[in-house]
Amino acid sequence: MRVLIQPEVQIQRINWLLTELAEYKLLSDVVLSRKLSNESWSMLEVIKHMTISHNEYKNKIMTSLNSEIGKGIVADGMKCGFVASWIINRFVPRENGVRFKMKTSNKFIPLITASDTADDLICNLEKTLIQLKSWIERYLTINVSTKKFNSAVGPIIRFNCPEACEFILAHNERHFFQMRQILASI
Amino acid sequence: MMYQDVIRNAFAPLILDDEKHSYFFNNWELVTFERNELITEAGRLEKYFYVVLEGVQVIYILTADGEKKVIGFSYNGSFSGIYDSFLSNKVSRYFLEAVTPSKLVRISKKRYDDWLVNYPEFNKWGRILHQELLIGRVDREVELITKNAKQRFECFMKRCPRELRGIPQKYLASYLNMTPETYSRLRADKS
Questions:
Q1: Can you tell me the mean pLDDT for A153-176?
Q2: Which of A50, A84, A105, B108 could form a disulfide bond with A80, CB atoms 3.0-4.6 angstroms apart?
Q3: Which chain B residues are Cβ-neighbours of A77 within 8 angstroms?
Q4: How many angstroms away from the CA of A80 is the closest CA of chain B?
Q5: Do the Cβ atoms of A15 and B91 come within 8 Å?
Q6: Please, which pLDDT band fits residue A147 given cuts at 50, 70 and 90?
Q7: d(Cα B149, Cα A80) in Å, to the nearest integer?
Q8: Mean pLDDT for chain B?
Q9: Is the pTM for the entire model greater than 0.90?
């Protein structure tokens, strides 16, 4: 089924994530750094991974938004293309959990360094969520370019600006779900 | 100040004197919004109490499948904002969106609370406002429960402010809890 992009719905979903992230600020470093197994990620690693992924799209989306006003009318809802819908639907967590396990490519693997504090990592993710929201607010009020650009995995999957924002959001929701599972297991 | 008269009218029956009530006219912040721009978002706290100088704004909630359900409007000379979030300090469940380019003035929660505590006349105005809001909400609920689509349309048309007549029909149809097609048919029948 094609994914319908509705900017207000996206903004509401981001606000839920921001509220949840604010609660994670109250957790101790011990909890945030705990891994359930050697292979799994800690909450801080998940948080850093989301920031890395967001930044991979940052320039492409900003270039798209700053190009001349396009024909894409998103305010009243806009359907994603077939391929974009397919990939986004695989990322969105459902009630019974994450459905498709995916391998993470090396450039998105989060490496926590000594200079990475929990506060900084959470603050960085918060900034990316606020930036994502600002992009969506932009195409809520102006018609944007629907010209496609390569996704982070290369030319095999291409997104236009609203599709890329929906993908980032679905990806984040998947990882917030993962963090909830980590917390529940600690 | 250009907006003094608007504020004076909005706060009626409170009679505001320029000198005696200078505190009422100070500290308002002028803000503007483009068409479709969100003034307050669902999931965020409403920090301001607004008076509308120009434009129409809509308050709506999103259903689980993303449909907008319109709860109310604000327009020239009326108050605006997500009042329950503002009063309770809890995040809003609703969006406040500019339907047309809008100009509003706003005060912070702290200022609003200060006025309620420190000025008896403002406190009295607050009591009257809350009575009117409550009566208005009950009337609307009764109307939605007891009247059919045609009756709801006719009642609304009698009281519909001029400012709302120019906005997209989908908002008015949603407010009246009917489809845009039904709204359009009823409007055609009337004319």
A1: 93
A2: A84
A3: 66
A4: 16
A5: yes
A6: confident
A7: 35
A8: 91
A9: no
Residue B75: give its domain's CATH number.
2.60.120.10
Res B53: pLDDT: 96
Is residue B32 assigned to a domain? yes
Residue B41 region by backbone torsions, left for phi larger than 0, else alpha for psi between -120 and 50, else beta: beta
Separation of alpha carbons A41 and A47, rounded Å: 10
Model confidence at B89: pLDDT above 90 = yes
Contact B144, B177 (CB under 8 A): yes
Q: Does B163 touch chain A (CB under 8 A)?
A: no
pLDDT at A122 over 70: yes
Residue B35 domain-assigned (yes or no) = yes
ipTM higher than 0.90?
no
The per-residue pLDDT for A131 is 97
Residue corresponding to tokens 């997209």: B168
Q: Is there a cis peptide before residue B13, judged by omega within 30 degrees of 0?
A: yes
With an 8 Å Cβ cutoff, is A143 touching chain B? no
Pairing of strands A154-159, A149-151: antiparallel
Burial class (CB in 10 A: 0-12, 13-18, 19+), B93: middle
Residue A98 neighbours by CB under 8 Å, 6+ apart: A174, A177, A178
- Residue pair A73/A139 in contact (Cβ under 8 Å)? The answer is no
Determine, for residues B38 and A140 on separate chains, whether the beta-carbon distance falls below 8 Å.
yes
How many contacts does A have with B, using Cβ atoms within 8 A? 43
Neighbours of A39 (CB within 10 A): 6
Q: Is residue B48, in this structure, part of any structural domain at all? A: yes
pLDDT, tens digit, for every residue of B113-169? 998 898 888 888 889 999 999 999 999 999 999 999 999 999 999 888 888 988 999
Residues 6 or more apart whose CB falls under 8 angstroms from that of A118 comprise: A29, A32, A33, A44
Number of domains forming the structure of chain B: 1
